[in-house]
UniProtKB/TrEMBL annotation:
Keywords: ATP-binding, Cytoplasm, DNA damage, DNA recombination, DNA repair, DNA-binding, Helicase, Hydrolase, Nucleotide-binding. The gene is ruvA. The keyword Iron does not apply. Homotetramer. Forms an RuvA(8)-RuvB(12)-Holliday junction (HJ) complex. HJ DNA is sandwiched between 2 RuvA tetramers; dsDNA enters through RuvA and exits via RuvB. An RuvB hexamer assembles on each DNA strand where it exits the tetramer. Each RuvB hexamer is contacted by two RuvA subunits (via domain III) on 2 adjacent RuvB subunits; this complex drives branch migration. In the full resolvosome a probable DNA-RuvA(4)-RuvB(12)-RuvC(2) complex forms which resolves the HJ. GO terms for cellular component: cytoplasm; Holliday junction helicase complex; Holliday junction resolvase complex. It comes from Pseudoprimorskyibacter insulae. GO terms for biological process: DNA recombination; DNA repair. This is Holliday junction branch migration complex subunit RuvA. The RuvA-RuvB-RuvC complex processes Holliday junction (HJ) DNA during genetic recombination and DNA repair, while the RuvA-RuvB complex plays an important role in the rescue of blocked DNA replication forks via replication fork reversal (RFR). RuvA specifically binds to HJ cruciform DNA, conferring on it an open structure. The RuvB hexamer acts as an ATP-dependent pump, pulling dsDNA into and through the RuvAB complex. HJ branch migration allows RuvC to scan DNA until it finds its consensus sequence, where it cleaves and resolves the cruciform DNA. Residues 33-55, 73-92, 108-127 form the Helix-hairpin-helix DNA-binding motif class domain.
Length: 224
């Protein structure tokens, strides 16, 4: 099983990228969001990967973070959600958006992805709502970085193209993970804690850990 690739980009297509790892080329399928964030041709890149193996098919799917890879695996476990649908959801919402949508039960956000109908979106939310806290707790850890030791020097590498800068993990991601842990220590259940944190993070995207905790506690406080 191939779990991560580090190499240089040979070319970028509309739905995949070819990564040269010491002379061996790997075709890796990615979401639109991930492709837009990759560097140009000839530049170093690293992606976490998940392999799909069938009798007549073998494909690699690439993700910039472990959180996104984990969401892909979970989305694929839902009936009616294949690799293409999973990448569509992640490409539309991003891993942080998927966490928030599922924690809040917002199936309309999931339905916004291309090719995802209302029944499938509701199934995604219902089947994964109890797993959202675990993925959220991963925070912003596990960002794939290329290592110089696995990338051969290229004498005449193609001139890098003007590519969009690679998106960095949102600062709010680690704050959400820390707030989730804190609420768990206070005795709140994973589901209700994740829902409150997701709502608070949606209202205050740049909030730090303490701000998220206070906002979540207000949401969890008994209503008169």
């Amino acid at each position: 099983m191939i779990g991560k690739l580090s190499g240089r980009i040979d070319y970028k297509a509309t739905d995949h990228v070819l990564i040269d790892v010491r002379g061996v080329g790997y075709i890796v399928y990615c979401s639109d969001r991930t492709l837009a964030g990759l560097p140009g041709v000839g530049e170093a890149v690293a992606l976490y990967t998940d392999m799909l193996v069938r009798e007549d098919l073998m494909q690699l799917f690439g993700f910039p973070t472990l959180v996104e890879k984990e969401w892909h695996r979970l989305l694929m476990s839902v009936q009616g959600v294949g690799a293409k649908a999973s990448l569509a959801i992640l490409g539309t919402l991003g891993p942080d958006g998927v966490s928030r949508a599922i924690a809040l039960g917002d199936w309309n956000a999931v339905k916004a992805a291309k090719g995802i109908g209302p029944k499938t979106a509701q199934r995604v939310v219902n089947e994964l709502k109890d797993k959202a806290p675990t993925v959220m707790a991963m925070g912003a850890t596990g960002v794939a970085e290329p290592g110089d030791d696995v990338i051969e020097p290229v004498a005449d590498a193609p001139k890098p193209s003007r590519a969009k800068p690679k998106p960095q993990p949102k600062p709010n991601q680690s704050a959400q993970a820390e707030a989730l842990s804190a609420l768990g220590n206070l005795g709140y259940g994973p589901g209700e804690a994740a829902s409150a944190i997701a709502q608070a993070a949606g209202e205050q995207p740049e909030a730090d850990t303490s701000t998220l905790i206070r906002a979540a506690l207000r949401l969890l406080a008994p209503k008169d």
